[in-house]
Amino acid sequence: MKADSTGGTFRAFRNRNYALFFAGQSISQIGTWMQRTAVIWVIYSLTHSAAMIGLAMFAQQFPSFLLSLLGGVVADRYPRYRILLVTQTASMGQAILLAALVLSGHYVIWQLLVLSVILGIINAFDVPARQPLIHEMVDHKEDLPNAISLNSAMVNMARLIGPALSGLVLQRFSAGFCFGLNAVSFLAVLASLLLMTFAPFRPAVVPKKVTAELAEGFQYLRQTPALNRLLLFMAAMSLLVLPYDTLEPVFAKVVFGGNAATYGYLSGCIGLGALAGTFVLASAKKGADLRKFMLGSVVVLGGG
Question: What is the band of 178 on the pLDDT scale with cuts at 50, 70, 90?
């Protein structure tokens, strides 16, 4: 069967596991962005401090920074499918706790920060297992670039819809409803995972120590200059560009004189450019013009 036999842009959907994953994640990612938007707005509404927003984002991201290498080792040693079942269930539990806490009306900043740390720890093991699992979901390996591009498009579509929907829910109801909807959205991804079928997992014949595997990873980086440059570029983007979203609620409320809906629309519009870029990449074929690829890559990176 040829790569384009099912149609260009969406050809990766002929792979059953990937189609299930895409459907479940499309719903779950919207809930995730709703929660992320609502958490930042709640913290800013309580403190009116941009510094506290930065602390909240640090609380969520820093555990992932510390533990992601360990998460990668775990993803190599154990079935990624089962790891994802555990992490997605844990994420749903975190969302339920957050919803119960906020809906009760008795919560303080440190409790929100602790739950953000818990989510960061979960993500440290979720992301290293989820991203490589896409390779296992695609039976027709010529569809892999298309699957990766569609996955990016799905994430950016959620980034467009989730914050905007969160703003509306925040304005009409409360942040607790956003967290509750996020918890419910995990049922979709868990159902999709349970419907998938994978080949039996084959662990390494000679298991290595964790320190040895980490050392091999750093050695591979030293021997691969192209990967080094890419990582440095992404590190610079993450440090100097992407943290702009810390100031979004400040601009929405102070600069533009808006409300939670304004913040949701402002945050959601960021996904528009990235979404356009991912569809450019998804439609690209082997041997496509390099400038087209670079244009799409810049747009995708710019949209996060």
Answer: very high
Ramachandran quadrant class, 49 (left: phi over 0; alpha: psi -120 to 50; beta: rest): beta
The total number of structural domains in the chain stands at 1
Q: Give the sign of the dihedral formed by CA 89, CA 185, CA 102, CA 161.
A: positive
**110: its two tokens:** 């440190």
Residue 61 falls inside a structural domain: yes
- Burial call 66-97: b when 16+ CB within 10 Å, e when fewer: ebbbebbbbbbeebbbebbbebbebbbebbbb
**96 lies in some domain:** yes
| Per-residue pLDDT band at 282 (split at 50, 70, 90) | low
Give the residue numbers spanning the domain of 95.
11-197+210-228+236-302
Structure tokens at 102: 């906020």
Q: Is residue 64 domain-resident?
A: yes
Nearest to 279 by CA among 151, 193, 179, 159: 151
- The region that residue 48 occupies, defined by phi over 0 for left and psi between -120 and 50 for alpha, beta otherwise, is left
289: which residues sit within 8 A by CB, 6+ positions away?
none
